[in-house]
Write the C-alpha cells for this entry.
Amino acid sequence: MQTSTQVLTTSGGESLQDSIQYQGRKAARAKSEHRRRLILEATLRIVAKEGVRGVKHRAVAKEAGVPLASTTYYFKDIDELISDAFMLFAENSQRYIESFYTELSKLISAYDFDELVHSADLQERLSAQILDLGSQYIHAQIRFRRNDILAEQAFLLESLRDERLKPLARQYRSVWLNSLATLLEELGSKSPEENASIIISTVYSLQYDGIINDGKIDEQRMRAVWKRVLDAILGQLKVENP
C-alpha cells in the first residue's frame, strides 16, 4: 500500500481549506485582521464555556478585549459571527485531523494488502498498532484540546435546532467520514463508510467519557472498546490459510 499525506475532503470532493467560506466583513489590513481573529477566538471560548446561545455581541467584545462596535463592524449579526466562529474552529481542527489520518495512513501503507488479507497474525499486529495510535489520539484530545471538544459538541448540538448551522455541520462531518472511509477502503474494508461512522462515533464517545470524568481515562476500558471496534472491522478481511 502506498503512503500518502491525507488531504481532508468534503462529500463534494473539495479540500476542507477550499470549502471554508467566511461570511463576515473581510479585513483589508493586518491590524484589522488581527482584531477580527481576536473576536472569533473569543467567540470560540464562549461557545466552549456557555454554548452557542451564550454568544452575544457584548459578551464577545468583553472576552476579546475590543470595543463593542468592533463586533458589529466585522459581523452584521450574531448568526454571521457564530457561523464564522464555526468556520475558524473547522480550520483549526484541520491540522489535527490531517495529522491523525496521515499517521494512520502510514501504518496501513506499511503492509502489503495481499499478505494482510491472508494472515491473521498481520491483522493482529496492525490492529495493535492502530489501537495504540487511537488511544494516544484520545489522550491528546482530552489533555490539550478540551475546549475545542466542548466547542465542537456545542456547534453540532446547536445545528440540530438551527437550520443555518446544519449545512456547516454536515460539511464538517463529511470531512471526517470521507477521508477515513478512503483509508478504510484502501485497507480492504467491505463497508468503508459504515465502518468510518462507527470509528468516529467511538472517538466521540471516548472523548465524552474523558471530559465528564474530569480528564481521567479508564485506559483498560478504552483499549477494550478500540479492540472490539478494530476486530469487527479487520474481521471483514477474508483470512485464508493463516
About this structure: The chain has two domains: 26-78, 80-235.
